[in-house]
Write the structure tokens for this entry.
Amino acid sequence: MDTNFSPIATEARAMRTSLRARRKWGCIDGTIGKPEEESSKMEDWWTVQSMLVSWILNTVEPNLRSTISYMENARDLWDDIKERFSVVNGPRIQQLKSELAGCKQGAVSMVTYYGKMKKQQRWATKLQGFHYEIFYKHGRDNRVVDALSRCESAESILVSLSSPVPTVLTQLAQYYATTEGKQLVEKLLKFST
């Protein structure tokens, strides 16, 4: 199955990899054929088919699942899904790419907005490890911030003005100095030996 340029290429590759890992891809590509009707292997073959049909249907979006014809043979089901969803609509894909490229958040392009958002997420992650309080200071009284807001690179000045001090180790040391903390350490030492 050539799915390199198909809209379902990623899902198809993932399913193919999963089925190969379970040695079941041959049921889809036809290298493992259906045994004779009277064969002792027929019941096992139907068991595998039922399992494969179930796996394939469970990977399909629930709202699309009801539109797919029920088939008991995994290869027929795979071919039906491939035929329905592998249709490439070049003009629509180009239209979506153009819309995405022109997408804006307010007056800022999405690329710029996303970059700022990632930067804010990094700072939020860095600040999560610290205990800090934010106090409102009226504009006239807050001369440092007022001066920094006029700088070209306020970020570098902010970093040099602030020095966050982690308090976790101090809090742990204080806790372990208490009777309760000492008892906990003793229990842990007994438990580990």
Notes: The longest helix spans residues 42-59. Residues 1-7, 156-161 have pLDDT under 50 and may be disordered.
